[in-house]
Amino acid sequence: KEVFRVLKDEWGAGFQSFISEKVVAVAGDVSSEDLGIVDLHLKEEILKEADLVLNFAAITKFDERYDVTLGTNTSGALHVLNFSKKCAKIKLLVHVSTAYVCGEAPGILMEKPLNLGKAARGRSNVVEVWNGENELVANRLHQLHSQNLTDKEITSAMQNLGLERAHYYGWPNTYTFTKAMAEMVMVESKGDLPLVIIRPTMVTSTLKDPFPGWLEGVRTVDGVLVSYAKGRLKCLAHKPEVVLNLIPADIVVNAIIGAMGMEFAEQHLDLIYHLSSSMKNPIKVSDIHDFMFTFFTKHPWRDRHGKEVQVAKLTNFSSMACFHVYMAIRFQLPLKV
Question: Residue span of the signal peptide, if any (predicted)?
Fold first, then answer.
């Protein structure tokens, strides 16, 4: 991976031996009990030696299949928790969540555990909700398979189910709902295990470490940047004054390490940390627009033929009504013709 470039340059020929002394990759699956570790001797060694567990595993697509997202984001988090509780030397479990577990709540959001409250919909606690959702998923999958539907049809049905359940409980999408439920289930089930929950906002490329601009994959706001650079994005419906809550990846990592250090030093247990930028360094949508135009004018994207892609300022629509009129005239009418 490109992220290791600085270490490779520093260690040269000794890089592989350096990494092998520090890092051991273990095949597994958080959606399975005991993290899907097959080697019993290895599992026993981990349970005997591990004193700190960090859970980064998550599916971040807003509309992924409900069974898949629930299995990783919620059940997976609980599997990590249960595995951590078995570790003989465990001192701390760090769970990386998202600031958007708040759903669409207005105002200042406090660093406090989530309360299922009215969202329980008649159930007594979040574990009951989680068990009920697992049962619902199993029944719906059985029903879909009995109808001899194609894989594509089953996937579409399970995506719709996820959005339906999220809206039913008061969250805007499957991702934020399953991450919120994970937090609540973990707090409910942790017992005496020290737990820290990290809630970053939209994670973007690195600011400084190991070098500026590193990013793997295209997520959140990155899709807009790439589409604009390639000349595919010509217009956008947005309010220029809206603040985008962006946070560089290396600041997220540094903050997690800092939070871990605080927990070990001060023993402030069961804390939640928000990692965001909007209060101290607000970046508006209009700023992003200006940054994109300036950067890709000076450093244009090259297409597969090596030709530079020329970009122009985006056409901005301040209302969805204007946007729909534009789409109808610019695209729907010509397509019908």
Answer: none
Q: What is the pLDDT of residues 212-247, one digit of tens each?
A: 989 888 877 888 889 999 999 988 888 888 888 999
Which residues have a catalytic role annotated?
175, 179
pLDDT of residue 221: 81
At what angle are helices 126-146 and 174-189 packed, to 10 degrees? 130
Give me the helices (H) in the chain, please.
Answer: 5-11, 15-22, 40-49, 66-69, 75-86, 126-146, 151-169, 174-189, 222-229, 249-266, 285-298, 320-327, 333-336
**Is residue 102 within 8 Å of residue 109, measured between CB atoms?**
yes
Residue ranges of the chain with pLDDT lower than 50? none
**Helix, strand or coil, per DSSP, at residue 274:** strand
* Contact between 256 and 198 (Cβ < 8 Å): yes
Distance between CA 202 and CA 99 in Å, rounded? 8
pLDDT at 107 (0 to 100): 83
From the list 243, 241, 214, 225, the residue with the least C-alpha distance to 293 is 225
Query: Which SS3 state, helix, strand or coil, does residue 93 take?
Result: strand
Name the CA dihedral angle for 265, 266, 268, 271, rounded to a multiple of 10 degrees: -50
* Contact by Cβ (8 Å): 113, 95: no
Q: What is the pLDDT of residue 79?
A: 96
Q: What is the pLDDT of residue 56?
A: 93
Nearest to 285 by CA among 325, 318, 322, 248: 318
8 Å CB contact between 35 and 71: no
For residue 24, give both structure tokens. 């051991």
pTM listed for this prediction: 0.87
Rg (CA), the chain: 23
Distance, in Å, from the CA atom of 253 to the CA atom of 251, rounded to the nearest integer, reads 5
Q: Are the beta carbons of 184 and 126 closer than 8 angstroms? A: yes
